[in-house]
Specification:
The chain is of the alpha+beta class. Helix content is 31%, strand content 32%. The mean pLDDT is 90.
Amino acid sequence: MTTQPRRIGVAINPTASFGSTRAVGPMVLDALEQAGHRAVRLQEQTVGQLRSAVRTAIEAGLDALVVVGGDGMVSLAVEAVRDSGLPFGVVPSGTGNDIARGLGIPLGDPAAAIASLLRALEGGPRVIDAGTVTDGERTTWFVGAVSAGFDALVNERANRMRRPRGRSRYTIAILRELLALRARRYELTVDGTPETVDAVLLAVANNTSIGGGMLIAPQADLADGRFDLFVVAPVSRFRFLRLFPKVFSGAHTGLDIVRLSPVRSVSIAADGITAYADGERIGPLPVTIDVVPGALRVLA
C-alpha cells in the first residue's frame, strides 16, 4: 500500500525547544516530509498559544494531527480533535508518557516512535474510547485516567512547588505526601449505585498506567467500552511503602486491599481532594466520569 500525501499538523510541546528532547520535533517534521506528506509546524511559546494555533490549523484543513510531548500534549490533541473525528498521533518526549505506553508506542526511542507513526499513517488509525470528567458546568475529555487519591494529592503538591524543576519535584512531593498519608472517605455513585468507601488511592482508569508507569490497571483495554475503578483500602504508612513499588509492575492486583472493578460511569465526592485527568488539573471534587466508547481515532 502506498501512503497518500497528507497535510499533517505537528504540535510541539513549548518546553521541547530546549533540553534533551529539543531534536524530536524537527525529526518528526523531517520524517513526514521525506515520506511525502506536508508537515505543518505548530510551535508556540505557551500551551495556551499552542492550543489556539492547533484549532486554527484544524479549521484551515488538516488530515491528521501529531503531538510531540507527554500526556499533557495528548490532552491538548484530544480536546482539539474530539468533535471532528480527525485522527491524531503521538511521538512521546515527555516525562510521563503513560498514554503512549498504553498505545504501544516505543518510549525513549524517537526514531522508533516516528517509524511507528509512519506505519500507522499507511495502515490507518485505530479506534479507542475516551472519557469525560464533569466538574460543575465544565466537561473535560481524557484518554488515560482520572486520579482522585494519593497520586492526585502528589500532583497538587508538585504543582504548588516552584523548585526543584523536573522529575525531582514530583519525587519530593511523593515523600511529603507519604508523611501525611491518611485514608479519605469517598461518596461514590458507580453505574447508578451509591456507595461509601474509605481509601488512600482511588482512580478511574481507561489506560493501564498513570504517573509515569504505575500499572494501576494492568488489564485495562483502551477499546473495551469501560473503565477500571481502582481503589486501595486504608493501610498503614509502612504497608503502603511496601505496596507502592508493586504498582509499577502490576503485582498489586492480587492484594486483599486492592479493588479493580469494571465501570462505565462514576461520580466521586470527597473533601480536600483535587481531581486530575491525565496529569492535568480538573478541580476539587465532586466530579462525574463517563466513558465515551469509540470516540477517538489514533495513529498507533
